[in-house]
Amino acid sequence: MITDIRKTYISPRVEATQVELEQGIAAGSASALPGDNSNSVQQEWTNGPDDSRTIDW
User: Fold this and answer.
1) Residues 57, 45: Cα–Cα separation, whole Å
2) CB-hemisphere CA count at 13 Å for 31?
3) Residue 42 burial (CB < 10 Å; 0-12/13-18/19+)?
4) pTM value surpassing 0.85
5) CB 3.0 to 4.6 Å from 28: which of 3, 23, 42, 52, for a disulfide?
6) Separation between Cα atoms, residue 26 and residue 3, nearest integer Å
7) How far, in Å, CA of 29 to CA of 31, rounded?
């Protein structure tokens, strides 16, 4: 005697939760201001010495 046991089918369901943050972790922890200590903005890049060392990864 063969018994046929079947499971009840449960259809898949997709759920989404939208979370809105007033301030993110990174946004609230630091601020970036253009300019140097005297609040003047540099118009050109400054050329530093060449870096020719070997960097191990």
Assistant:
1) 28
2) 4
3) exposed
4) no
5) 23
6) 60
7) 7
